[in-house]
Design goal:
single chain, 266 residues, alpha/beta, Rossmann fold, seven-stranded mixed sheet, two-stranded antiparallel ribbon, 47% helix, globular, binds S-adenosylmethionine
Length: 266
């Protein structure tokens, strides 16, 4: 039987698990050893990489495209700009950026080689390969120089990172002074009038869709749970400030389902 609400899900998963030893974190509604999470997240994206793009279109009814285009509009791409797109996966943000600025360049960095391989194939097929590089790396320990990028984006990636504070510090480190951090991410709550319908769609429909389209229900169960574990926009803004950023703010979209968070390295 499918659980009818987020609360049912939380109590179910809490009852069924044994507490791991040492430092812990969350993987959806489960508590897991901190050093196990990255591999679990890798497992999720290895499993869905090839069907990831189509699943995004189906479960968001195409709306993720509007959110991603809004992210590129906020970025205000300029000639010669070099973007670092973290957790860039299959290249969705990178290619939109390259469409918006003729001589821009992008580094797509992701911890998952399978997702990058799909992105690289798309880059070749769609003619972006000479302006895009693909680097396997962890948002918490970036293989890039201090003050080396003109902008940093992370779209639907940061909630998967084990220690978000470390990813934010790394973003700050690699940005040039005056450059901006942009994060597109789901928010845990929507406007109250839609909350019930949103919960039903999230917990009862999306995992089933995941099963039908990617043959992987569990990954999409993790997906909906991880959204609910992500901080509220205000809390996340506080974390961005704590990493050293100035002019921190966010813009909520689609009744609060997603938000674009920004900060500037002064
Ligand atoms: C939901 S996908 C988002 C892909 C793309 N940015 C988009 O908006 O369609 C999340 C991505 O985050 C990546 N990821 C998770 N943890 C990461 C980490 N610690 N460092 C870098 N990438 C990570 C995953 O491998 C996956 O490709």
């Amino acid at each position: 039987m499918v659980s009818s609400s987020k609360d049912d899900m939380m109590s179910e998963t809490a009852e069924n698990q044994t507490e791991p030893k040492g430092a812990t974190t969350h993987f959806g509604f489960k508590t897991v050893a901190e050093d196990a999470k990255a591999d679990m997240v890798k497992g999720v994206f290895n499993s869905v990489a090839k069907r990831y793009d189509i699943m995004n279109d189906v479960m968001s009814v195409g709306v993720h495209r509007i959110w991603k285009n809004s992210l590129i509009d906020s970025l205000n791409p300029r000639p010669g700009m070099h973007l670092l797109d973290l957790a860039g996966g299959t290249g969705d943000i990178a290619f939109r950026f390259l469409d918006a600025v003729r001589d821009g360049t992008v580094t797509v960095c992701d911890i998952n080689a399978e997702m990058l391989a799909v992105g690289q194939e798309r880059a070749v097929a769609q003619g972006y390969a000479d302006r895009a590089e693909f680097v396997c790396g962890d948002a918490m320990k970036l293989p890039f120089d201090n003050r080396s990028v003109d902008a940093y984006t992370i779209s639907f990636g940061i909630r998967n990172v084990t220690r978000i504070e470390e990813a934010l510090s790394e973003a700050f480190r690699v940005l040039k002074p005056g450059a901006k951090f942009y994060c597109l991410e789901f928010s845990p709550q929507v406007v109250p009038v839609l909350q019930k319908a949103y919960d039903t769609y999230s917990f009862n429909v999306i995992p089933k869709m995941g099963e039908m389209i990617t043959n992987d229900r569990d990954s999409y169960q993790y997906f909906v749970e991880s959204i609910r574990r992500f901080p509220t926009p205000q809390k996340f803004a506080d974390m961005i400030k704590a990493a050293g950023f100035s002019r921190v703010g966010w813009r909520s979209m689609s009744a609060g389902i997603a938000a674009i968070h920004t900060g500037t390295r002064i």
